[in-house]
Write a structure and sequence with these properties.
Elements: H1 2-10, E1 24-41, E2 72-87, E3 92-120, E4 123-124, E5 127-128, E6 131-139, E7 145-157, E8 160-168, E9 172-185, E10 192-193, E11 200-201, E12 210-224, E13 227-238, E14 249-265
């Protein structure tokens, strides 16, 4: 004990204790995105086939792919939000927050004479058991002139997930991350296909209000002072169809973006 005391008193400086790990952060981020969609399911029932006698030959098949009768192009959207981050370990960070998404895509269609537009619901062996009929002047096959439609979606979601540091020091780091996002759709005025794929119409009652999205990302972060900057690609996918189970076609949205963000320690 006397030797230890002597060494401490004669040491030129005192070693400082290990730096305390900052665990709580807030984060703000913005991501420009390109929005796509994929369609699946659906079939043309025997009652609907006669409506396609002037359309593509492929349309007369019993189970036709709806992607054969549409012409979609991606459009620009964006994502903005904020998160609370908790640094569980030096490499693993848990996160939860609130975010807004604007997604859109363009549809090439044709102006035509106003005509009935039928949406077939729950089908039984290819025959519709219930239908919704409205009127429209927009078709998929041909008409008086080309028209450009744009389906737009406004969503609020609550992402919950993690970030994992793959490599780097406290200054420069490489991360990967993932979130699950319960999502609420704010608007329901987009266009959807009719039962025979020949027209576009609107039917708000067939859009799902609540949905679930999943997102993955990779980013590089750099710390300057008390703020950490980050940039990297991300991919977001809608796990459930945009439409309710009554509508026979499934639509899943896909978004590719570059995420820009800043995070700061909460003292």
């Amino acid at each position: 004990k006397k030797q230890t005391s002597l060494l401490q008193s004669s040491a030129p400086y005192e070693l400082s204790s290990l730096k305390k790990l900052n665990r709580k952060y807030w984060q703000l981020y913005l991501s420009p995105t390109a929005s796509y969609r994929s369609l699946s399911g659906g079939d043309i029932s025997a009652d609907m086939k006669p409506n396609l006698h002037n359309g593509p030959i492929a349309a007369t098949s019993q189970n036709s792919n709806p992607n054969q009768y549409i012409n979609n192009k991606p459009a620009v959207g964006f994502e903005a939000g904020g998160s609370f981050l908790y640094r569980f370990t030096r490499n693993l960070t848990l996160k939860a927050g609130l975010q807004f998404n604007y997604s859109s895509y363009n549809i090439n269609a044709y102006a035509s004479n106003t005509q009935p537009a039928t949406i077939a619901l729950n089908s039984y062996y290819g025959y519709p058991t219930n239908t919704i009929t409205s009127y429209t002047n927009i078709g998929t096959i041909g008409g008086k002139a080309v028209v450009n439609l744009q389906n737009q979606y406004y969503q609020l979601s609550a992402p919950v997930g993690f970030e994992l540091r793959i490599m780097g020091n406290e200054k420069l780091q490489l991360h990967v991350g993932a979130t699950v996002q319960p999502t609420y759709l704010l608007n329901r005025n987009a266009y959807l296909l009719t039962a025979d794929y020949t027209n576009y119409t609107q039917e708000p009652s067939l859009f799902r209000r609540w949905n679930v999205n999943g997102a993955v990302e990779a980013f590089v972060s750099y710390k300057t002072g008390s703020i950490r900057w980050q940039i990297g690609p991300q991919f977001r996918y809608q796990l459930l169809s945009t439409y309710t189970s009554q509508y026979p076609i499934n639509e899943n949205l896909k978004e590719f973006g570059i995420k820009l963000g800043i995070s700061k320690t909460i003292f």
